[in-house]
């Protein structure tokens, strides 16, 4: 039986740059682990080593809340790129619910965040609107109002 969601882990090339992006869209850094050098992680993930920088980001620091486990791999170095489009197989994006999408978009834009569209898109007849950004490494992040 599954009890609850725990975290989403995102690999980035530069931890500080990526933290700034997620803070610009409203998340908070709730914990920084610093450099982790853990053989157990290497073994579990079938990697030759596991030295990484880690930060946790979330909407709040209340216990049990879903958080982003943001990871910059130092050894081995991260490789590859995020999916170039949203129609790939696998995890293609994650969504964050926001109470005031227009204010969030304006605030994020003022901090340098760019979006795929100029304005939020409305879908359905229930008042749901959303807009999509890409983090510094290309991960798609959807901001949703009215869901």
UniProtKB/TrEMBL annotation:
Molecular function via GO: metal ion binding; methylmalonyl-CoA epimerase activity
SUPFAM superfamilies associated with the record: Glyoxalase/Bleomycin resistance protein/Dihydroxybiphenyl dioxygenase
Name the UniProt record assigns to this protein: VOC domain-containing protein
Domain VOC: 4-146
Superkingdom field: Bacteria
Keywords recorded for this protein, A-Z: Metal-binding
InterPro entries (alphabetical): Glyas_Bleomycin-R_OHBP_Dase (IPR029068), Glyas_Fos-R_dOase_dom (IPR004360), MMCE/EMCE_epimerase (IPR051785), VOC_core (IPR037523)
BP term (GO), one: L-methylmalonyl-CoA metabolic process
Metal-binding as UniProt keyword: yes
Record Pfam families: Glyoxalase
PANTHER family hit by this protein: METHYLMALONYL-COA EPIMERASE, METHYLMALONYL-COA EPIMERASE, MITOCHONDRIAL
């Amino acid at each position: 039986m599954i009890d609850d969601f725990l975290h989403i882990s995102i690999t980035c090339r530069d931890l500080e740059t990526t933290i700034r992006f997620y803070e610009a869209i409203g998340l908070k850094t709730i914990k920084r682990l610093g450099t982790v050098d853990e053989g157990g992680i290497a073994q579990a993930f079938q990697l030759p080593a596991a030295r990484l920088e880690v930060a946790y980001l979330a909407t709040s620091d209340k216990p049990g809340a879903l958080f982003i486990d943001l990871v910059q791999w130092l050894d081995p170095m991260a490789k590859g790129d995020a999916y170039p489009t949203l129609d790939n197989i696998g995890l293609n994006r994650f969504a964050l619910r926001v109470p005031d999408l227009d204010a969030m978009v304006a605030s994020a834009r003022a901090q340098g965040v760019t979006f795929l569209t100029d304005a939020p898109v409305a879908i359905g007849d229930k008042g749901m609107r959303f807009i999509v950004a890409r983090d510094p490494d290309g991960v798609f992040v959807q901001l949703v109002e009215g869901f």
